[in-house]
Design goal:
The complex is a heterodimer of chains A (about 260) and B (about 450). Chain A is an alpha/beta fold. Chain A has a single domain (about 55-250), classed as Ethanolamine ammonia-lyase light chain (EutC) (Rossmann fold, 3-Layer(aba) Sandwich). Helix content of chain A is about 40%, strand content about 15%. Chain A has 10 helices and 6 strands. The longest helix of chain A has 21 residues, at about 120-140. By secondary structure, chain B is of the alpha/beta class. In chain B, about 45% of the residues lie in helices and about 10% in strands. Chain B has 22 helices and 14 strands. Chain B has a 4-stranded parallel sheet, covered by helices on one side. In chain B, strand 3 and strand 4 (about 150) form a beta hairpin. The longest helix of chain B has 17 residues, at about 200-215. Chain B is globular and about 75 Å long. Chain B starts with a strand and ends with a helix. The chains are: A alpha/beta (about 260), B alpha/beta (about 450).
């Protein structure tokens, strides 16, 4: 049995699991050890690499969107990982900054947060917004400046949305990286955002990445959910994503575990 | 009020749960909950106080009130005073010394288990070093049976975990065959399904039943879905071997899992009614993990390790085949790094064993924890030395459905080779019979191809 056995190559069509790896005594062959190490290194880098917001800000400007940089109350990555409660609240400086923008009142506030994968944000956020923006504009929704949030968790959007009097907030956030998907983006939609919203009051579209849910399909789902949310006056567990039927979506994935 | 004085400083602790929280070796979850010791000195002072507390005290002062919590009621109401009698006069510190002494033998500890409460086990673990946790746990032998015999001394079993993000049956079958050919699967073949749809669950149950029966494998299957879903599957005639449930150490955390003690009894009764076990009738599989109660805001100010031990009181009520602490899965806000994960894994294994459970451990971590494969190698070896009942076996250690890293089929081979640990006897005989291992349980360099041929047939 070895990793080059044609039987195993054939079976790998059905799963990304690391099957048929062969062995060196009781151990993995060195090629597999190093391949695993590289995947873990990419996932670690996704968690620990500070995000560079400038390229995204430039791409947003090209789409006609301004951006505002904000930060959570977690001052650094170590605190962010240990204290999820701080990642859900704005820093005092960011709160002040947004308080000057209370006249904004957008129908849809987009917040982009680094979350647990800065690479997920860098790779996917601009593409997703570019697909979503024409749909939002066609529906006549106002979209305010995009908030770029460092050390943010999903619920950070609640406080930001509350201050800006947004009707709905869309949080785009780097998902907890897996070995085979270190660069995945999650989208969380919350109607009438305010501090204290529960996770059950949001809708989630996850695994947005090349090789996962493509940006165009994700934008379609988000737009569908948002339209229904405005129409029915709610988001969360009672708003089921029925757009999958229209898309005949075969790529639906398990929901992200980390919020 | 509990007090300790050390040189100039006097430490005061309002109640037992504060002593226990502050005596706990440091971990991020207790800091997050705001209950951890504020200094290293306070941590040791609390251990000194804890060591002098009589074991009897834990029967008088509940960490979660009896009136508001059915897990506390279960612990107190099911306490076996006769079994407790031999250690009833001891303090926590004396009990630790006794556990490590020659007097505490395997049969003595087996008789003692129903006399111990989770809080006694947790308190003792808090003043023990890692080596104490290993030596005390390895004295305990907990044997359970369904289609094979799990937990015999000198043996370690493996749960084959062939998850797939869309429950693709060919992908799952490929992972199962890979695991069996590497000698894994004697604890259970257990799938975490992506779907919670009962029809999809029943499909998977039939698929696992087909593989087990076709190759006459002395093992059992489990789909790790909610207990009520398993009950529904049984009602529809599906071949359920083991009923699974995630459980925790308070009524409120179990409520957050959507489960009551009555549900668990109903699930066990339903599985027993099928009489599918051939050598025994342990039909439950439970998973637990430090931090679940805090995560559900159901912790009552009690430290996460004590609450974890309380989950074992729930587990032992239902005579499980397997109990698994999924130690590193919950993330760094509860267990920050390899050191904290290793410590927690040893504590959970010790407490589970002392309370009489077939205790396994998912030696694992997520990518946002400060941990890596080297940390897992350490914990796995320590648990092997401690006599762990079973560990996980996942292709290449990479769970593509749950997005975390656990132990691989190869990791099981590593700990077997290093410590001479054998598989469950019926499974060991099966592997030899079908031409995958030699008489000593070593994998053959030219293994039989029957399993691979079967899965190739599925793929064609």
């Amino acid at each position: 049995m070895s990793s080059n056995d044609p039987a195993w190559l054939n079976l790998r069509r059905f799963t990304d699991a690391r099957i048929g790896l062969g062995r060196a005594g009781s151990a993995l062959p060195i090629k597999e050890v190093l391949s695993f190490s590289m995947a873990h290194a990419q996932a670690r880098d996704a968690v620990t690499t500070p995000i560079d917001w400038q390229p995204l800000a430039d791409e947003l400007r090209a789409l006609g969107l301004e951006s505002i940089r904000i930060a959570s109350a977690a001052p650094d990555r170590d605190t962010y990982l240990r204290r999820p409660d701080l990642g859900r609240r704005l820093s005092p400086a960011s709160r002040q900054l947004l308080a000057a923008e209370t006249g904004t009142k957008p129908d849809l506030l987009i917040v982009v947060a680094d979350g647990l994968s800065s690479t997920g944000v860098s790779a996917n956020a601009a593409g997703l917004i570019a697909e979503l923006l024409p749909l939002a504009r066609k529906s006549g929704w106002s979209v305010g400046p995009v908030l770029l949030a460092s050390q943010g968790r999903v619920a950070l959007g609640d406080e930001a949305g509350e201050i800006l009097n947004a009707h709905a907030v869309l949080m785009l956030i780097g998902e907890r990286p897996g070995l085979s998907s270190p660069d995945s983006l999650g989208a969380y939609l919350t109607l009438d955002p305010r501090v204290g919203r529960k996770d059950g009051e949001r809708n989630c579209v996850s695994n947005i990445r090349v090789g996962g849910l493509p940006a165009a399909e994700a934008a379609f789902k988000i737009h569908w959910l948002l339209r229904e949310a405005f129409r029915r006056g709610l988001t969360g567990v009672t708003l089921k994503d029925e757009s999958v039927y229209q898309l005949e979506d075969a790529t639906a994935q398990a929901p992200a575990l980390e919020r | 009020m509990y007090r300790a004085a050390w040189r100039q400083t006097e430490y005061r602790f309002a109640d037992l749960k504060e002593v226990m929280a502050k005596a706990t070796p440091p971990r991020s979850g207790d800091v997050l909950a705001g209950i951890a010791a504020r200094s290293a000195e306070e941590n040791v002072a609390a251990k000194m106080v804890l060591a002098d507390i009589p074991l009897k005290r834990f029967l008088e002062e509940a960490v979660v009130p009896y009136e508001i919590d059915d897990v506390t009621r279960l612990i107190i109401d099911s306490h076996d005073k006769a079994a407790f009698a031999p250690v009833a006069h001891m303090t926590v510190g004396e009990f630790r010394d006794w556990l490590l002494s020659e007097e505490a033998t395997t049969p003595v500890l087996a008789r003692l288990a129903p006399g111990l409460t989770p809080e006694m086990a947790a308190a003792t673990s808090k003043i023990m070093r890692n080596q104490d946790l290993i030596l005390a746990a390895r004295k305990v032998e907990v044997i359970t049976r369904f289609r094979d015999t799990i937990g015999l001394k000198g043996r370690m079993s493996v749960r084959l975990q062939p998850n797939h993000p869309t429950d693709d049956k060919r992908g799952i079958a490929a992972s199962i065959v890979d695991g069996l050919m590497l000698g894994c699967g004697d604890a259970v073949i257990g799938i975490n399904p992506a779907s919670d749809n009962v029809g999809a669950i029943i499909d998977l149950l039939y698929m696992l039943d087909d593989i087990i029966r076709r190759f006459d494998i002395p093992t059992q299957s489990c789909i790790l879905t909610h207990v009520t879903t398993s009950i529904e599957a049984i009602a529809r005639g599906a071949p359920v071997d083991l009923v699974f449930q995630s459980i925790g150490g308070t009524e409120a955390v179990n409520a957050s899992f959507g489960v009551t003690l009555a549900n668990l009894k109903e699930g066990r009764d339903a599985a027993l009614s099928l009489k599918r076990g051939t050598v025994g009738d342990n039909v439950m599989y439970f998973e637990t993990g430090q931090g679940s109660a805090l995560s559900a805001d159901a912790h009552h100010g009690v430290d996460q390790q004590t609450l974890e031990a309380r989950a074992y009181a729930v587990a032992r009520t239902y005579k499980p085949l397997l109990v698994n602490s999924v130690v590193g899965f919950i993330g760094p806000e509860y267990l920050y790094n390899g050191k904290e994960i290793i410590r927690a894994g040893l504590e959970d294994h010790f407490c589970g064993k002392l309370l009489g459970l077939p205790m396994g451990c998912d030696v694992c971590y997520t990518n946002h924890a400060e941990a890596d494969q080297d940390d897992m190698d350490i914990l796995l070896m320590l648990l092997g030395a401690a006599g762990v009942t079973f560990v996980m076996g996942i292709p290449g250690a990479d769970d593509i459905m749950l997005n975390y890293q656990s132990t691989s089929f190869h990791d099981a081979l590593y700990v077997r080779e290093a410590l001479g640990l054998r598989r469950a006897p019926e499974f060991e005989a099966w592997l030899e019979r079908v031409g995958l291992t030699d008489i000593d349980g070593k994998l053959l360099s030219e293994p039989a191809q029957l399993l691979l041929d079967h899965v190739k047939g599925l793929a064609a």
